[in-house]
Design a protein that fits this description.
Layout: H1 7-14, H2 24-44, H3 49-52, H4 68-83, E1 86-91, E2 98-99, E3 110-118, E4 129-137, H5 147-150, E5 157-165, E6 169-174, E7 179-185, E8 190-195, E9 206-208, H6 219-229, E10 240-241, H7 247-257, E11 260-263, H8 276-289, E12 293-295, E13 315-318, H9 320-333, H10 336-340
Parallel strand pairs: 1-3, 9-10, 9-11
Antiparallel strand pairs: 1-2, 3-4, 4-5, 5-6, 6-7, 7-8, 11-13, 12-13
Helix pairs in contact: 1-2, 2-4, 6-9
The structure holds 2,5-anhydro-1,6-di-O-phosphono-D-mannitol and magnesium ion (MG).
Length: 341
Amino acid sequence: MGSVKTLGEFIVEKQADFQFSKGELTRLLNDIGIAAKIVNREVNKAGLAGILGETGSINVHGDHVKKLDLFANEQFIAALSVGGECCAMVSEENEEIITIDNAVSKGAKYVVALDPLDGSSNIDVNVSIGTIFSIYRRTSLSGPGTLEDFLQPGTEQVAAGYVIYGSSTMLVYTTGKGVNGFTLDPSIGEFCLSHPNMKIPKQGKIYSINEGNYVHFPEGVKKFIKYCQEEDTATSRPFSSRYIGSAVADFHRNLILGGVFLYPTTSASPKGKLRLIYECNPLAFICEQAGGKASNGSKRILELAPSALHQRSPLFIGSKDMVEKIEELIAKYSLPSKAKA
Ligand code: AHM
Ligand code: MG
């Protein structure tokens, strides 16, 4: 049997990639890995909620059984608050930023943006869900982190990753030097390097979109869906449609097999549904590092300047050629000047 490399070992080994690194990012990534294991344990037990007490109710110990997304949020906040490397967080579960100002966080250089448990419609039905995280170096000088620390474009991310709680649990992350994936071995309780140097195929055969919203999509997106469904031997069309409804799971499958995930504007979500800072940007960073592309339809996701913490954006992400095809069709059929004409 070949030797196993754990996430902890790998992170420490990669510290040397960063000149003058003092190990802060290493510790931060380790803290995230530990919180992910705790969340994984609870996600695995989720089906027992009916036996042990419904979420929201009182369990046999007299404790309130927390909803999983709130539990996950608390675990990540707790791990990063005591870790000493993070001075503020933003989470999908909290309206405002969470400032960290304690004895160990003095001198902390990083802020973390987080969707603690993404795929809310899949949480209670035993379908893959995920955690998404993004790490920035603070721009403020001292004290607890500030709102401005989070309003940096995605190009400034120092690291980003996700955890997928699926048929097996994986942690995938990048620090801007490629993408590596680790699978949790439950028998030893460690994430082990299973997918080194992940690369997304340039062209895929899968498109992932909630087609139930079809009538509300921009014309360019409708044209892309029709393009995917047309018969064409040279380009292996028609493509397959696969949609889980958990962005992490849909993205992860497409990263490995090749494909594109789309969440465009709809009339219900005129700015798109997904959040720029803790959903679109981290996935975009990973995708680009794997050789793929991420766009809002006309611009690179990572270059968008956030103006609000929970800002939304349309997202087209995955295999480079497929995202470029979408951009081409949006430019042709849906750009504002044409829509108004
Ligand atoms: P959430 O943060 O409330 O879970 O919403 C984000 C999720 C994504 O994981 C997924 O891609 C999308 O919402 C699914 O939305 P829809 O049900 O509209 O297709
Ligand atoms: Mg979410």
